[in-house]
Design goal:
Blueprint: H1 3-15, E1 24-28, E2 40-46, E3 64-70, E4 73-79, H2 90-93, H3 95-103, E5 107-116, E6 126-134, H4 162-175, E7 179-186, H5 195-203, E8 208-210, H6 214-222, E9 226-236, H7 247-270
Helix pairs in contact: 1-3, 4-7
Length: 272
């Protein structure tokens, strides 16, 4: 079965389980599963039941698709994503994005937990991603291009939708939410960065760093979907003194900031 046919087969299976076509998809990062409470749920589908779907192996990622509504919007939520460091290929990491497109999704909201490389940031800050730097060792569009899925040479001059960013700024101002904006750097992982790497990443233009998001955003744009992305700054690597960090600490910091992010995302979806 071709990759395109796998996408269609997976989408066909999901369509037999849902009653409404989703227009917006939300991808939850580490520690942000609480955002699932945003949705008035219609149905949950574990990844293990979905044909051709990978399985999430990381703590803090539930591993299910949730369908329902936020306001008047039909939404699907991806509770648990896939990472290159888990051993998946880029095609597998971004497979759910292709399925979203086949289901009728037009807008993707991506969240993640990220390390701060900008010395003005603090743990718990929310950062709108307005651009990214791709340092993954494999590109998600590498290989033969199927024109049914997108163009061969993808323009990336505006990967993050400026209208959605403007709306998020307005919501933050109205709700008294402190928002940062900046450039996200995508790395393979699974190690956290060394102090020298943090300094280098800031020097080359990065404000935050993580192990996800960039491949998904590239494929979403390849599918001609609008993208809005936001990071929770869960650790900092901006001092001369090395600071140790664990995945558990990342989860705790993400959980603490999740309610504020949830309120912002909920209002943004309702304004679409």
């Amino acid at each position: 079965m071709s990759f395109y046919d796998k996408i269609q087969a997976t989408a066909t299976y999901i369509k037999t389980k849902i009653q409404h076509q989703p227009g917006v998809a939300i991808i939850l990062g580490s520690g942000l599963s609480g955002l699932a409470d945003l949705i008035s749920k219609e149905i949950e589908i574990p990844y293990s039941e979905i044909p051709n779907f990978p399985l999430s192996t990381v703590e803090g990622h539930d591993g299910k698709l949730v369908f329902g509504t936020i306001g008047n919007q039909q939404v699907m939520l991806m509770a648990g994503r896939f990472h290159y460091y888990e051993g998946y290929s880029m095609q597998e990491v971004t497979f759910p994005i292709r399925v979203m497109k086949a289901l009728g999704v037009h807008t993707v909201i991506v969240s993640n937990a990220a390390g701060g490389t900008n010395p003005t940031f603090a743990i718990g800050d929310l950062m709108i991603i307005n651009d990214h730097i791709n340092l993954f060792p494999e590109h998600p569009l590498r290989g033969p291009n199927d024109p049914r899925m997108g163009v061969r040479f993808l323009d990336m001059s505006s990967p993050y939708d400026t209208d959605l960013i403007t709306k998020a700024r307005e919501i933050a101002a109205e709700s008294n939410i402190k928002l940062r904006e900046g450039v996200y750097v995508g790395l393979q992982g699974p190690t956290f960065e060394t102090p020298a790497e943090y300094r280098w990443l800031h020097t080359i233009g990065g404000d935050a760093v993580g192990m996800s998001t960039v491949p998904e955003v590239i494929v979403a744009r390849h599918c001609e979907m609008k993208v809005f992305a936001i990071s929770v700054i869960t650790d900092l690597g901006v001092t001369d003194t090395p600071v140790t960090i664990s995945h558990q600490e990342v989860l705790e910091a993400a959980n603490a900031a999740a309610p504020v992010m949830a309120g912002l995302v909920e209002k943004l979806v309702k304004k679409m």
